[in-house]
Amino acid sequence: MPDINRPLSPHLSAYRWRITSSLSILHRASGVFLSIGAILLVGWLIAVASGAEAYDRLYELLYSIPGHLLLFGISAGYFYHLMNGIRHLFWDAGLGFELETAQRSGWAVVIGTIVLTFGFWALLLG
User: Domain 20-125, CATH 3.30.70.380 — does that match?
Assistant: First the structure.
C-alpha cells in the first residue's frame, strides 16, 4: 500500500510566471514542431520524386491559406529554436545566469524570433 503521508509537489499555481520557464516549454514544443516540418520535408521530397501530379497536389496544399500558416509556424519554430539554442550555448559556457540577464536574453529570443520570421517571409513573398 502506498505511503499516504508522503510530501506532494506544489500545484503549478504556487509558482510565479517567469519568461524563462515559458521559453523552456516553448523550446521543447518548437523541437516537436520542427519534427513535423522534417516529415513535411520528406513528403515534399517524395512528391518531387513521384512526378508532376504528386508535386502539384502538394503544391496546392502548401500554397493554400492553411498550408501557408503551417509553413509560417514551422519557420517561426525554426527561428525560435535557433535563437534559444544560441542562448543555451551561452548558458553552457556559464554566461547569462543572473536573473536580470536571463530575462533580457529571453526577451531578446522572443523579439529576435519575430524579426527573423517576418523578415524571412518578407523576403520570401516580396
Answer: no
Residue 111 three-state SS: helix
Give the integer Cα–Cα distance in Å for 47 and 51.
Answer: 7
Ranges of residues in the chain whose predicted pLDDT is under 70: 1-3, 7, 12
Contact criterion met (CB below 8 Å) for 23 and 109: yes
pLDDT value of position 23: 95
The domain limits of the chain are 20-125
What's this model's pTM, rounded to 2 decimal places? 0.84
pLDDT (tens digit, 9 = 90+) per residue, 59-71? Answer: 999 999 999 999 9
User: What is the Cα–Cα distance from 113 to 81, expressed in whole angstroms?
Assistant: 9
Q: Give the closest residue to 33 by CA, choosing from 123, 113, 91, 89.
A: 113
Report the alpha-carbon distance of residue 24 to residue 39 in Å, rounded: 24
